[in-house]
Design goal:
124 residues; alpha+beta; 4 strands; rod-shaped
Length: 124
């Protein structure tokens, strides 16, 4: 065997494969982590959407809104809406969305109470 032959030795090929495997493993871990983060972000976005939906329903219900019992939602979410007096003329409406697994998201909204002279009166 002469020293002028071209090519890689078995040791060089093995070292190159180990280095490439480590780089590929790093990319796979990065991909897996980003995939998990996207899933978490999607879950939180869904929780915010459910909370905003409940706030809009409370707005449509009017100033006499007293809250709703806990309800199950698609995807394993659960939502609870409560209201309590905040200050004279204001009611605090709180929407709590429980995420699947663990975690919760709270959204608060202050609603103005209807003046006593307007209660029971129908607007034209």
């Amino acid at each position: 065997m002469t020293r002028n032959e071209r090519g890689f030795t078995l040791l060089e090929v093995m070292v190159a494969l180990v280095v490439l495997s480590l780089v590929a493993l790093g990319y796979l871990q990065l991909f897996h982590g980003s995939h998990r983060l996207v899933g978490d972000a999607r879950e939180w976005s869904q929780a915010v959407e459910y909370a905003e939906d409940a706030i809009e329903r409370a707005k449509l219900s009017g100033p006499g809104f007293t809250g709703t019992p806990a309800e199950s939602l698609p995807g394993g979410f659960r939502r609870e809406v409560t209201s309590r007096p905040w200050q004279p003329g204001l009611t605090l409406v709180t929407v709590t969305v429980f995420l699947p697994g663990s975690g919760r998201f709270d959204l608060d909204w202050l609603a103005q109470d209807q003046p006593a002279e307007q209660r029971g009166r129908v607007s034209p």
